[in-house]
Amino acid sequence: MNVFARSPLPRRVLDSIGLLLVRLGLKRACPVKRPEGRPERVDTKVSHPVFARWLSLLAPKLDEKGAAEHRAELLDGVSGRVIEVGAGTGLNFRHYPETVTGVVAVEPEPYLRAKAEGAASEASVAIDVVDGVADRLPAADASFDVAVASLVLCSVPDQAAALAEIRRVLRPGGELRFYEHVAADEPGLARLQGSVAWFWPWLGGGCHPNRDTVAAIEAAGFAAERCERFSFRPSPLDAPVSPHVIGIARVPWRP
Q: Which DSSP helix (H) or strand (E) runs through 101?
């Protein structure tokens, strides 16, 4: 029930009260819905200029310490048409096998997207790098065989909306390949994640250290087929984001 519906207060006063409640976390901003149920208003502009430059320097070093092997494992056996959500600088691109017929790599951050375009020009498969955000993917329904999410579901503003979009663009039976850091099972590490959660997104370009991403994937209607959990801690500072998972989840076949 809308308690403001019959209020005698002027509309501008009600709007100000509503905005204050949102900022205090006592009310959710609720965008107008499209007829098909998708949000009408989605922020499609992403800019983290400092973080993007830091990431472009750090990520190759992480690859040298083991992340490259994780990427190769993630993409082993991938085939058909692929959409990669949050491509970053394009470090996955060299790991796509020749069985892939084409990749649409979505990256909203301008600096990272420019780096990805350079990496795409050197890849062994056709890769089209495009602007876009996870909760409004620039793709038609059921138009891809595989979706790839690599260290991105930690940072999307609305994880459920992003996973719903990924499911939308996958064909029935299509795969979601995911490589993410996740919430810890070990109580001490979980407490550490919780203690840094308030400032970690500010440091990490929106990254949340303690999301239960596997549960979110299953809640979005995917059937998890493989889920390998492991610790990856290339430096002591990475402790809050050391629990990782590599897995495959599938869109159920329609009857």
A: strand 100-106
* Residues pairing with 102 in the sheet: 81
* Buried/exposed code over 5-37 (b: 16+ C-beta within 10 A; e: otherwise): eeeeeeeeeeeeeeeeeeeeeeeeeeeeeeeee
* Amino acid (1-letter code) at residue 179: Y
Query: Other CB atoms closer than 10 Å to residue 141's CB: what's the count?
Result: 10
Question: What is the tens place of the pLDDT at every residue in 139-162?
Answer: 999 999 999 999 999 999 999 999
Beta carbons within 8 Å of 107's beta carbon, 6+ residues apart: 86, 87, 88, 113, 116, 129, 130, 131, 132
Residue found by looking up tokens 């059921």 in the block = 142
- Low-confidence stretches of the chain (pLDDT < 70) are 1-49, 255
Nearest to 203 by CA among 236, 241, 159: 241
Four-CA torsion 223, 78, 54, 208, nearest 10 degrees: 0
Q: Which domains does the chain have, with CATH numbers?
A: 9-41 (no CATH), 42-250 (3.40.50.150)
Distance of CA 117 to the CA centre of its chain: 19
- Cα–Cα distances in angstroms (integers) from residue 77 to residues 6, 72, 98, 215, in the given order: 60, 10, 10, 24
201: DSSP letter: H
